[in-house]
Every structure is written in structure tokens, then in C-alpha cells.
């Protein structure tokens, strides 16, 4: 029965998956990426090497080979704005940069596979570090012509369409999709689901834990946050350095890429000015407290970060208006949050998602799905 399960192809996991909305690495800018992310129900968007806005001599769409070169989320934008905002750069020059500056430089986290790729091969790719598998969508012949004519999705003026060479469309399979598929067939693996993750030996005790001290500046964690995005983990916020000398540092919470992905770009101002502990409060829940908003604004002025000040003012639209204490939280929540799916909003909590090493494999998988990412702190010493 287990062999029958592993004989499944990735096309079986693509049923009902929507075509990817694409950005062109050649023409899209950071501003385009922000607009596209805000208009999307999903926290991540794909970036492709091709540009379908270009036309050939016959006035047909570009027939160049298309390859997904990476994915981006609002957390990438926030890290980029935090790193590059200074007195010498105007905000427009930062936003006009190519979207490729948001892509990770170290390694690719997206892999192209054929729809006939076996499930076991897909699992090997995911465990090997891939976060998303790009799969061509199989289209019925009688609907192919209609899709070619009508299924164009425009996000901004410089965004590519979802129709690629030879009228192909793609979707992606995520770690979450594979875990859900395995959970649906969990009885096949009996009695493994009832065993603890410690007994199964799935805890990697040699994996380096990304951490930042609760009282240290959030800006000092930008590099760690960027690494966390690439590795699909979170940055632990601890009381005391977790440097090996004190392996029992107290875990306070976490800065999760998924949490940042549910914010808008103005969160870069909080990263640039607040401590790691205050940043957790700022990005948690439905919106930042009024006291922290004032702190961020004052510190931006002290540091002379004109670009971030104008960004915050342009998004809030309320720098010159007054409101009561009762009205302010609702207004801030509206400008602070993005239109994201309900599942993504569940991730907007800075409390660390942890599990006990004695928890069963099934319990951990369900917990991971519930919070839309893999449990990254399961090996924390005090858990």
C-alpha cells in the first residue's frame, strides 16, 4: 500500500492549484513587486527569466524559454528597504531597482519538474532544500485555445502574464502541499505516525539556530531574517545569546518570515528603529500599538531616515489628521495589514511555534500545517 502511495505523480497534487502569477526579472521593479504582492491573496509570488511584454516582428508574444528563478514575499521587500534606506538614496531610486535584488543570492529554492515526476522524487527534492516545485499544468485540448486567448493575468504594467511559451501555464507544489498529501494518507505509514519525533530520529541537532537577543536592535537581525526566508525557518528571539555557551537561553518568541510577509512595506521602519522584542509586538496581531508607532516615527527623525519617513507617511495617510484613541487602532490596522488569505493571517503571531521532542510525528505535522510552515524550533533545549 505504501508503494502505491509513492507511485503518485506531482500532477496528482496539482489538482485545483491556480496558475502562478509571474513577475519578470528583466523588467519588473521593486515597486512592481510591492503592488503585485498587495494585490495577491498569497504571500509569495514567482519571478521568471522571461518577459512576455516584449513582442517579435510578427507582433506575437515572446517565445523565449521561461524559467522560474525564485520567489519573493513582503519580508524580502522589508529586509531590502531596511538595508538600503539612508540619507544618500532617494526613495524612488530604491523602488526603481530591479526585482532581482529581492531574490536570494546563495542558492535556488525553486526547482522545475515535469508533471510525471514521482512523489518520492518530489519528497527527495524538498528534503534536499527546495521549497517549491514548479510544475506545468496539464491542459485539456478543447480548452487550450480558449485559455491562450483569455487567461492573461495582468498585475501591473510591467508584470508578465501567466501564459508562457507554447501556451503553457505553471503552478507550484510547496512543502505544505506535500505534508497535506501525506497527512491524507497517514494510515499507510502506521505505526510510524504514533512514534515521537525523537524516537524517529528526525530532529537535526546539528542545525544552526538563527537567534537574536530580545534587547538587541531588530536591524541587526536583517541578515538572519534573510537567511530564514531562504531556509524556510524563523529567527528565535531569546533572552541571552544562543551561542553554544548557554544552550539553555530562554526562548521569548520569534520573528517569522511568514509574519513579515503579512505586513506591508512600512514594517521596514520598525525593523530599522526598534529592538527585536519591540518588533515582535509591532508585527503581532491586527496592528502596532500607538505608542510604538510614535517611537518609530521619532527614531526615524532622529536618524534622518527621510526615505522611510516618507514611506510611512504615504501609507498611513494620517500624519496630519487627528483621531480618537478608539478610532486609531482600526485605522492603523487597515493601513498596516494586507489583503491576505485567512490561513496566512493565522501566521501573524510572533509567539514562537514550538513542539515537544516527545510529540508524535502526526501531532507535529498537523501543527506545522495549522501554522503554514515547518516547525523550526522543535529541538529547542527547554521544550
Walk me through this protein's architecture.
With 383 residues, the chain is α/β, with parallel strands linked by helices. It is built from 17 helices and 9 strands. Helix content is 37%, strand content 11%. The longest helix is centred in the C-terminal third of the chain and has 14 residues, at 290-303.
| Number of separate strands | 9
Low-confidence stretches: 54-62, 142-161, 318-336, 339-347, 374-383
Helices, by number, come to 17
Spatial strand order of the main sheet: 1-2-3
Largest beta-sheet characterization:
3 strands, mixed
Shape: flat
Rg computed from alpha carbons, rounded to a whole number of angstroms:
22 Å
How are helices and strands ordered from N to C?
HEHEEHHEHEHEHHEHEEHHHHHHHH
Question: How much of the residues is beta strand, in percent?
Answer: 5-15%
What class do helices, strands and sheet pairing give? Answer: alpha/beta
Amino acid at each position: 500500500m505504501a508503494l502505491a502511495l509513492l507511485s503518485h505523480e506531482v500532477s496528482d497534487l496539482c489538482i485545483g492549484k491556480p496558475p502562478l502569477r509571474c513577475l519578470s526579472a528583466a523588467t519588473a521593479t521593486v515597486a512592481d513587486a510591492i503592488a503585485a504582492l498587495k494585490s495577491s491573496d498569497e504571500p509569495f509570488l514567482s519571478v521568471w527569466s522571461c518577459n512576455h511584454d516584449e513582442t517579435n516582428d510578427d507582433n506575437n508574444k515572446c517565445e523565449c524559454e521561461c524559467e522560474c528563478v525564485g520567489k519573493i514575499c513582503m519580508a524580502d521587500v522589508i529586509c531590502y528597504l531596511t538595508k538600503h534606506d539612508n540619507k544618500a538614496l532617494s526613495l524612488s531610486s530604491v523602488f526603481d531597482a530591479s526585482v532581482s535584488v529581492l531574490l536570494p543570492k546563495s542558492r535556488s529554492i525553486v526547482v522545475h519538474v515535469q508533471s510525471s515526476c514521482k512523489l518520492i522524487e518530489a519528497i527527495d527534492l524538498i528534503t534536499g532544500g527546495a521549497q517549491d516545485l514548479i510544475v506545468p499544468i496539464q491542459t485539456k485540448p478543447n480548452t487550450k485555445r480558449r485559455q491562450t486567448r483569455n487567461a492573461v493575468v495582468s498585475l501591473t504594467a510591467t508584470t508578465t502574464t501567466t501564459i508562457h511559451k507554447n501556451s503553457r501555464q505553471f503552478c507550484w507544489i510547496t512543502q505544505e502541499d506535500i505534508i497535506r498529501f501525506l497527512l491524507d494518507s497517514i494510515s499507510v505509514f502506521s505505526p510510524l505516525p504514533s512514534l515521537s519525533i525523537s524516537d524517529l530520529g528526525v530532529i537535526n541537532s546539528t542545525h544552526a539556530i538563527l537567534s537574536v537577543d530580545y534587547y538587541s536592535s531588530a536591524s541587526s537581525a536583517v541578515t538572519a531574517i534573510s537567511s530564514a526566508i531562504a531556509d524556510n525557518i524563523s529567527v528565535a528571539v531569546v533572552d541571552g545569546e544562543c551561542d553554544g555557551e548557554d544552550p539553555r537561553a530562554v526562548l521569548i518568541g520569534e520573528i517569522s518570515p511568514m509574519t513579515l510577509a503579512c505586513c506591508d512595506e512600512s514594517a521596514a521602519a520598525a525593523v530599522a528603529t526598534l529592538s527585536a522584542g519591540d518588533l515582535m509586538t509591532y508585527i503581532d496581531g491586527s496592528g502596532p500599538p500607538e505608542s510604538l508607532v510614535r517611537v518609530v516615527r521619532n527614531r526615524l527623525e532622529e536618524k534622518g531616515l527621510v526615505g522611510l519617513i516618507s514611506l510611512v507617511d504615504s501609507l498611513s495617510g494620517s500624519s496630519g489628521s487627528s483621531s480618537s484613541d478608539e478610532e486609531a487602532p482600526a485605522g492603523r490596522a487597515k493601513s498596516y495589514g494586507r489583503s491576505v488569505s485567512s490561513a496566512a493571517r493565522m501566521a501573524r503571531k510572533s509567539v514562537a511555534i514550538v513542539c515537544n521532542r516527545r510529540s508524535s510525528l502526526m501531532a507535529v505535522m498537523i501543527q506545522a500545517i495549522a501554522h503554514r510552515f515547518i516547525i523550526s524550533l522543535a529541538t529547542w533545549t527547554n521544550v
